[in-house]
C-alpha cells in the first residue's frame, strides 16, 4: 500500500514519517510532494491509496487538491493535516471526501487512528470493487457462453427447456406463457468478404459484435435473444417469441443496424411460426434450409424464407466431368492451359440460373477430393504429412465470394480456383526439378549425416562431382556455401539438444559432429550470437 505526504514544509513531512508505524499499517511506499500540483503528478503515476495533505500551500493548495482528487482519484482516501482551525476548511474537507481533519501540532495517536480508519475504509471499498469486477467478468465471459450452450441444446433437444424455464423467464423474459416461436439464422458463410477480412485475426470479436447488435434490438422490448450456435462454426441463431408475423420486418431493422455499425448487410434465413418449445427444431431447420437453398446469383432480399422457394439448381453439373482436363493442365505447367480448363468449368456454371450454398458446398467437396487425388498421384509415395503440407493453404470449408451487393461473384470464384490449381502445378514442377537436381540430393545427405565428419572432398567423391562445381551450384541454389549450410543444420539440432539439461555441452557438441567442445562453442556463438551455455539458460527460462 502507498501513502503520499503533501506539505510545503519538509520538517512537517519528516515529522509525520517518524510519528507513524508504517509497517504495522501495511504501508510499504511513502511518497512526498511540496505542493498540490506536484502531488497530482505523483498521484497520476503511482495511484497511492492514502493521501495526507496540508491545506495552505503554494501553486496548488489543499482546497484545490481535494477538488482534483474527487474528480481524478475518487478511490483514494484523504486525511487533511492543517495548522488552521477553520470551519470552512473542515466543511470543504468533508464535502470532497476527506476522512479526517487533524490540527497541527500533530498528535501521534490521533494521526495513527485517522490512518487506520482511512485504510479500513479503503479496504472495505476495494473489497466491494473487487467483487463487482469479478461479477462483471463472470457476466461478460461465462454467462454468454452458458446461454450459447443452453439454447443450442434446446435447438437440438427442445425437451431441455423445462429444466431451464425459470432462468429463461428471469434472465431473458422468455416466460412460460410463450406458446409459439420462430428461429432466424445469420451465417458467416456468405458474409461480405470485406467484413470478414477486417476481423480475420479475431473471428470471436466478429461474432461478439454481430450478437451484440442483434441483442440491442431484440432485448429492448423482450422480443427475442441472439446467441452463437454451439454446434456450428459459422451460425448465429435468433430465437424470436414476440410479434412473430412481423419478424421479417424486424430483421430488416437489425440489418440496417448492421449496415450502420459494420458498413455491411447480412443474409438471414427464417423459419415459419411453430409451437414452442416442442417444434423449435423444425423452425431452426427451415431457417437453415432457407439460407442454404437461396439463389446466390440474385439478390432480391436479405431475408430468406422457405415460404418463397427458389428454382431447383442444375443437378447434373459435376466437377469430376472436368477432372481429366484439369489434370493435363497441371502436368503441362502452363498457367494459360490451367486458366482455360477452369474457364470451361465456369462456363458451364454460368449457364445455371440458380446456384445455392448447398450446391457450392457440394462442388467444393468434389474439388477438394480431386485436389487430394492429384497430390497423391503427382507426389507418388508422399506421406500424409506431405499431402497436408501441399494442401496447407487451402481453407477447410467453402469460401463464398460475394460482391458488394451480396451476389455470388463467379469471377472471384474462378480466380480462386485457378490460383489453387496453379499452386499445385507450381509445386509439381518444383518437385520434379528437385528430383533431378543433384544439389538437393547433397542437401538431403547433409540433413541425414550432419553428425558425421563431413567434408567437401567426401561429398565430391560420393556424388562424382568436382568440389568447385558443388560449391558454385550449392551457393546458387541455397544462397549460402556448403559449410555454412551444414553449420546451420548442426546449430539447429544443437539448440534442440541444449534444451535437455541432462546433456553436457561436450555431449551435445559430439552429437552434432564436433569433437572439440571449444570449437563448437566458438561456431555456435558466431552463428547464434550467444554461447551454448547462455542459450541453454535463456531457452530454459523461456
Automatic annotation (TrEMBL):
The keyword DNA-binding applies. PROSITE patterns: HTH_ARAC_FAMILY_1, HTH_ARAC_FAMILY_2, RESPONSE_REGULATORY. It comes from the Bacteria. Residues 440-538 form the HTH araC/xylS-type domain. CDD domains: REC_YesN-like. The modification 4-aspartylphosphate is found at residue 54. Keywords: DNA-binding, Phosphoprotein, Transcription, Transcription regulation. Residues 2-119 form the Response regulatory domain. The keyword DNA-binding applies. Coiled coil: none annotated. This is Response regulator.
Amino acid at each position: 500500500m502507498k501513502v503520499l505526504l503533501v506539505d510545503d514544509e519538509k520538517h512537517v513531512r519528516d515529522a509525520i514519517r517518524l510519528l507513524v508505524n508504517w509497517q504495522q499499517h501495511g504501508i510499504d511506499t511513502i511518497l512526498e510532494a511540496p505542493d498540490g500540483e506536484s502531488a497530482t503528478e505523483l498521484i497520476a503515476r503511482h495511484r497511492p491509496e492514502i493521501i495526507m495533505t496540508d491545506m495552505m500551500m503554494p501553486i496548488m493548495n489543499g482546497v484545490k487538491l481535494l477538488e482534483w482528487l474527487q474528480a481524478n482519484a475518487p478511490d483514494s482516501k484523504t486525511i487533511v493535516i492543517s495548522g488552521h482551525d477553520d470551519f470552512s476548511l473542515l466543511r470543504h474537507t468533508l464535502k470532497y471526501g476527506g476522512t479526517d481533519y487533524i490540527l497541527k501540532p500533530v498528535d501521534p495517536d490521533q494521526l495513527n487512528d485517522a490512518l487506520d480508519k482511512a485504510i479500513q475504509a479503503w479496504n472495505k471499498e476495494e473489497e466491494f470493487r473487487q467483487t463487482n469486477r469479478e461479477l462483471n467478468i463472470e457476466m461478460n465471459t461465462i454467462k454468454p457462453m452458458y446461454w450459447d450452450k443452453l439454447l443450442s441444446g434446446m435447438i437440438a433437444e427442445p425437451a431441455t427447456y423445462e429444466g431451464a424455464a425459470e432462468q429463461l423467464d428471469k434472465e431473458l423474459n422468455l416466460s412460460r406463457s410463450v406458446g409459439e416461436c420462430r428461429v432466424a439464422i445469420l451465417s458467416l458463410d456468405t458474409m461480405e468478404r470485406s467484413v470478414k477480412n477486417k476481423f480475420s485475426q479475431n473471428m470471436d470479436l466478429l461474432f461478439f459484435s454481430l450478437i451484440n447488435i442483434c441483442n440491442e434490438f431484440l432485448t429492448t422490448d423482450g422480443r427475442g435473444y441472439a446467441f452463437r450456435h454451439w454446434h456450428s462454426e459459422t451460425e448465429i441463431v435468433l430465437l424470436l417469441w414476440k410479434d412473430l408475423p412481423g419478424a421479417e420486418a424486424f430483421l430488416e431493422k437489425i440489418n440496417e443496424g448492421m449496415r450502420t455499425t459494420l458498413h455491411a448487410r447480412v443474409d438471414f434465413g427464417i423459419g415459419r411460426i411453430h409451437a414452442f418449445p416442442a417444434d423449435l427444431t423444425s423452425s431452426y431447420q427451415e431457417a437453415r434450409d432457407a439460407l442454404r437453398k437461396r439463389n446466390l446469383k440474385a439478390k432480391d432480399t436479405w431475408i430468406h424464407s422457405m415460404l418463397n422457394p427458389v428454382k431447383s439448381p442444375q443437378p447434373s453439373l459435376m466437377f469430376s466431368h472436368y477432372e481429366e482436363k484439369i489434370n493435363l493442365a497441371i502436368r503441362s505447367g502452363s498457367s494459360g492451359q490451367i486458366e482455360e480448363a477452369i474457364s470451361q468449368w465456369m462456363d458451364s456454371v454460368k449457364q445455371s440460373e440458380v446456384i445455392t450454398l448447398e450446391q457450392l458446398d457440394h462442388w467444393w467437396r468434389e474439388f477438394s477430393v480431386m485436389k487430394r487425388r492429384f497430390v497423391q498421384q503427382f507426389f507418388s509415395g508422399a506421406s500424409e504429412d506431405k499431402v497436408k503440407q501441399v494442401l496447407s493453404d487451402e481453407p477447410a470449408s467453402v469460401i463464398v465470394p460475394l460482391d458488394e451487393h451480396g451476389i455470388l461473384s463467379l469471377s472471384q470464384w474462378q480466380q480462386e480456383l485457378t490460383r489453387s490449381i496453379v499452386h499445385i502445378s507450381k509445386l509439381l514442377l518444383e518437385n520434379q526439378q528437385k528430383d533431378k537436381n543433384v544439389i538437393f540430393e547433397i542437401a538431403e545427405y547433409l540433413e541425414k549425416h550432419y553428425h558425421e565428419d563431413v567434408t567437401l572432398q567426401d561429398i565430391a567423391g560420393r556424388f562424382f562431382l568436382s568440389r568447385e562445381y558443388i560449391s558454385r551450384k550449392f551457393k546458387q541454389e541455397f544462397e549460402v556455401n556448403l559449410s555454412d549450410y551444414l553449420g546451420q543444420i548442426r546449430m539447429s539440432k544443437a539448440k534442440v539438444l541444449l534444451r535437455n539439461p541432462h546433456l553436457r555441452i561436450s555431449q551435445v557438441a559430439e552429437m552434432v559432429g564436433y569433437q572439440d567442445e571449444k570449437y563448437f562453442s566458438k561456431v555456435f556463438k558466431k552463428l547464434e550470437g550467444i554461447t551454448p551455455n547462455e542459450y541453454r539458460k535463456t531457452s530454459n527460462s523461456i
